[in-house]
Structure of LysR family transcriptional regulator:
Amino acid sequence: MRGSLTLGLLVELRDIEIFLTLAEELHFGRTAERLRVSPARVSQAVSKQERRLGVALFDRTSRHVSLTPVGRRLREDLQQAVDLLQAGLARAEAAGLGAGQRLRVGVFGHAGHVLRPLVDAFRARYPGSDVQFGEVYGSDPFTALRTGDNDVHVLWLPVAEPDLTVGPTVLTGGRVLAVSADHPLADRGTASLEDLADNHVVDLGPGAPEYWVASMVPTRTPRGRRIPRGPAARTFHEILSLVAAGHCVHPLGDVAARYNSPPGVVFLPMPDAPALQWALTWRSTADGPAVRALAQTAADLGPISM
């Protein structure tokens, strides 16, 4: 208990967070917005600490907020304490991720190969922990998360599901159009979003929300032409089989072209298609230490460009 009751001061962690945030923002409104509290709560916390310490921590007017010399020193001291606290918690969490802790991560196709740097960093940071990849289908991107069969999915954005948490972006890349080898587009070398209106694309069915499918396979071209859908397919390999047979074309992430060379299929770059971002996604009620550890590792590593 030594040090926790110095001068009889009982400082709540929330008050420390408010002080440090205000010391960074130097604005009561922005501080309140970041911490999701009212500006009055921020003012109350600061005034309470100033009364306890008997000294002003901030000089403030109606237009300006700045730290006093005492406030600057307190910010430095408290930030060091918070950093030590967070480091201690991180070490404790790492110790809890011992041998046998394995995260089940769902990916599309061969994306697991591209994610090797993330897996290697996770294993190095948390010895004994591991990642096991499984395949996710565009026709049903969320069910395995909701049932608990998978811990995390790597999904293209946006994901706007109220029960799911979207974590850091782990992959970025372009799009390719899969066409049959004897398709008129095959010899052109590239494809555009407008080309989709002259062909059919795969119908992924009702298991995936329309907003999410449309971010990969739009319903209309930039000029407003409708993009026909059908035949139906459920898996990545079913899509490639339909494409090879000449029944349709289909846009995919460009990782598909890197790790696949199926007979009868050509992958054409789509330079006019917006870049894709893929993020870690998990069930909000299953936000355990291992998931948080993988997300933090991904955030520290940054997105991998495909």
Remarks:
- The chain has eleven helices and 13 strands.
- The longest strand covers residues 164-173.
- The longest helix spans residues 69-96.
- Residues 1-10 have pLDDT under 50 and may be disordered.
